[in-house]
Design brief:
The chain is an alpha+beta fold and 174 residues long. 17% of the residues lie in helices and 44% in strands. The strands form 3 sheets. Strands 3-2-6-9-10-5-4 form a 7-stranded antiparallel sheet, sandwiched between helices. The protein has a 3-stranded antiparallel sheet with strand order 1-11-12, with no helix packed on it. A hairpin with a 2-residue loop joins β11 and β12.
Length: 174
């Protein structure tokens, strides 16, 4: 069900501006195989530990939407604080499509799906598509986690107030 902005009282511009005040992690979603594609995302979350499930939200007009739907799998690379260049690359609308977009980054094929996993990431997950729900102009993709790994580094990349930031946990308070 879609609600018109005048019924919700919040315009798309106001919604974007308000949610910019919510800090989020940054991931690069990827699909391997014949539908190879990558996309920077911050609408990503853990859903369940048993079974292991995550979700990502992707605009129905995005190339990634069709890639995940066709491939039935995706990977998510959680970016390290110094990987802002990769985040910007996979957010750029003028980058090449298909395998050529991965020429600019170091990556390895995920062992379960062959979806690209960005080298140097803080962590990564490979997922098979478990369910999809339409939600406004996006779809919510639920992925059953097939594999996971962790990298090194004390700093994670965040997106807040329209900009990238690093959070460094090397001097974490306990």
């Amino acid at each position: 069900m879609e609600l018109a902005p005048e019924l919700t009282g919040v315009s798309p511009t106001e919604m974007r501006s308000t949610l910019a005040r919510f800090a989020t992690g940054v991931v690069v979603l990827t699909v391997g195989g014949e539908h190879m594609h990558g996309m920077t995302a911050n609408a990503f979350s853990s859903v369940s530990l048993d079974p292991p499930l995550v979700l990502c939200c992707v605009a129905r007009t995005a190339v990634m939407h069709d890639a995940i739907t066709a491939a039935g799998h995706f990977a998510a690379s959680m970016l390290r604080g110094d990987q802002e260049t990769s985040a910007r690359w996979f957010a750029a609308r003028d980058r090449p499509l298909g395998p050529a977009q991965f020429d600019e980054v170091d990556w390895v094929p995920g062992p379960a799906t062959a979806a690209p996993v960005l080298a140097g990431s803080l962590a990564w997950l490979e997922c098979e598509l478990a369910d999809v729900h339409e939600a406004g102009d996006h779809s919510v993709f639920f992925g059953r986690v097939l594999g996971a790994g962790r990298g090194d580094g004390p700093a994670g990349l965040l997106f807040f107030d329209g900009a990238y930031w690093q959070v460094d946990t090397s001097e974490r308070r306990r």
